[in-house]
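PROTEIN DESIGN WORKSHEET
SECTION A - STRUCTURE
LENGTH: 86
TOKENS:
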């Protein structure tokens, strides 16, 4: 009989901590903290997107400048060997 009582008592003690005594809604501080975390993540994503767009724009500007230099070089060349007189 003592074994059964001890087993039941052990079972009740082990289950008791897993069941919440009272369900509480998160307070204002918890909502504010969650909001700050969300804002931080969103800002980080926006910053990454802006950096990526800026990198693409820099690359496009370099490509355009290179094409302009090449076109200018071709125009200044004057047609190569065929236009020279001997």
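SECTION B - SEQUENCE
RESIDUE ASSIGNMENT:
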């Amino acid at each position: 009989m003592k074994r059964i009582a001890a087993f039941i008592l052990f079972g009740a003690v082990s289950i008791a901590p897993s069941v919440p005594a009272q369900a509480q809604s998160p307070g204002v501080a918890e909502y504010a903290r969650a909001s700050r975390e969300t804002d931080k993540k969103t800002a980080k994503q926006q910053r990454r997107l802006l950096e990526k767009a800026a990198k693409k724009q820099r690359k496009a500007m370099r490509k355009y400048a290179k094409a302009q230099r090449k076109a200018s070089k071709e125009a200044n060349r004057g047609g190569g060997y065929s236009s020279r007189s001997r």
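SECTION C - NOTES
The mean pLDDT is 84.
Residues 33-73 form one domain.
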